[in-house]
Design brief:
Helix content: 10-25%
Radius of gyration: 27 Å
Shape: globular
Structural class: mainly beta
Number of strands: 27
Amino acid sequence: MTELQKYRRLVLGLLLASLTALAVCGYLYLRDQVPDSILVEEGEETPVIFRTSLGALIQEEAVEAGSRGTSDIPREQLHISGSGSSSAAEQIRCSLLGILPLKTVEVESTERKSVYAGGSPVGIYLKTDGILVIGTGEVEGADGQIHEPAEHMVQTGDYIVAANGCPLEDKEELVECINDSQGQELSLEVVRNGSLVEVPVLPVQASDLSYKAGIWVRSDAQGVGTLTYVDEEGNFGALGHGISDVDTSTLLSLGQGRLYEADVVSVTKGESGKPGELAGIIHYRDSSILGDIAENKSTGIYGKTEHTEEMTAGELYEVAYKQEVEPGPAVILSCADGTVKEYEIEIESIDLNKKEVNKGMVIRVTDPALLKLTGGIVQGMSGSPILQNGRLVGAVTHVFVQDSSKGYAIFAEDMLEEG
């Protein structure tokens, strides 16, 4: 075999290997786009999962309840269980062009929910469950030396809950406890990765003669976001993402929290590489409390309000299931100019099986008025409801730093499921 023939065989082998790898990657990508399960309304016809261009590649076959094979009942006659229909779909089998199996999707029937869409700004105050450690630092001692009393003792992300057996509520109590130690060793109880551990810390006398442990902590957080929905029982959801610590990027462990009335007072327009912001003022008075925050989850903050009439002044909307959301025109409800208004957007892409739940959709602001006012999506708009075809389909969660007209959104179904 000549050198030329060997070279040709090598090139051919590399080409075949590349095509095979490309095909495998394409198959895995398509498989990853198929959700493990979907929710449908009781009595609904078996839904089409993929309304996007993927529908041309992924073939869907409804499976009759109790059947091991593909149902021979026409798809349009196959309904989800419980509506009086004699036939019921429990699974949808997805395959690539009807040839290569991709995934079997579990179908769960449920009663469709309806909620009042928000869009108004809300003030958020949250106290952590314990005192969050965000780092340790040096202390200049009264002896003129530099000390690091907490180094390798506490860790970033720890929650300090007690000292010498005494429960601690906030950072002020921790500071007082450390100073009262007069340099005696403290036994700190901390929650670390879900487990309670005890760590010793020996405070030192600082140059100002107080005693310090060199621990940077935080015990609360506050800010302005957007209300997403309130249901008829007064349960609310907001933000579309959880509240995380700015230094550790970890989801804050909620001790207690409240929702307050807030007003937008100014707008900083977003630019490429520089996110804008809705600056608001929070009314921290008892008469302005809207409700209690009960949960801080990755999908948003949730709680209960006693002011149902005030927070349900908007229209009641059915909540869309994921597979009902379509690429194309939609609107968001925002209070960017001080009053809740509809602004036009485009849903550019949909990912039904996104690993990051807050990024199920990519949206783009198309409304000239909102683009002129904010440049698109800005901080403070997180939680702004997204409406399409007369239903609540999602909420704004993130802005693209390099293009403020675009951002991510979460499916409303995911928020309602969590909340």
